[in-house]
Amino acid sequence: MQQDTIxxxxxxxxxxxxxxxxxxxxxxxxxxxxxxxxxxxxTVDRAERNCVRAMQVGVTRARSIVRGSYANLGRxxxxxSRMTRHPEITDNVVIHGEENLRSALAAGKGAILLSAHMxxxxxxxxxxxxxxxxxxxxxxxxRDERVTxxxxxxxxxxxxxxxxxxxxxxxxxxxxxxxxxxxVLIDQDAKSxxxxxxxxxxxxxxxxGPVKMxxxxxxxxxxxxxxxxxxxxxxxLNILPPLAFxxxxxxxxxxxxxxxxxxxxxxxxxxxxxxxxxRWAWTLGTARS
Length: 289
Hints:
By secondary structure, this protein is α/β, with parallel strands linked by helices. It has helices spanning 3-19, 22-38, 41-55, 59-82, 98-106, 121-130, 145-157, 169-177, 209-217, 251-268, 281-284; strands spanning 93-96, 111-115, 135-138, 160-163, 181-185, 195-199, 202-206, 220-228, 235-239. The strands form two sheets. A seven-stranded mixed beta sheet has the order 1-9-8-2-5-3-4.
């Protein structure tokens, strides 16, 4: 499908999302994501295979998890799309452990919010920003520059600043040295640029930039997880105490610590993690399986 066509579809869906009642918009988003999954059978099949392997469940359970993951993604996109005109959506987020973030920022060395593509990660950042926290988020360039710009604009409308793609170290260092929070999702395949460490029990190439920066600046690394309550509009944002890295010179050990905490929460709420991301493509060749 050509980029212009996709862009026009995005615009039409956004306009519709803005005028629908919130609950209806979430159901519509889940339905659209389900249709997208039905049209992407190869991607869904790969996600189900990865789920069977990582979760050690049967095919039927894996199919249910991946279907739930698509539905959660659809609801999350609906919420994100509506945030500019409906900032009150962030009122649906209950924050737990806010004192952990306040304490970390009070040290004056910033804080790295370590998370995964789980729940509605964009809404999590917006909820923190609307409560007065200085939040920056790593941004990934999309194939269409117009989509990249749109994502950045929606974030900025909620008070979240975007740090450019490729883990712009200078920009990331600046926000941390200014005592701000930097949200980073490390559940992405870093290919040859990462450290291989277990993720959901399987070896995965993992970005280590956040850990390296935290050690250099002295920033706290706080695991943060957004969890949707059932299939509805309410969320719990869990901010955990900072991680304690035991060995500064052993990056594999430190990255494993990060992956372990992410894996623990994904195992609790597997339907809320983005299984469509091929986490093990580089280490296990799952993209070709």
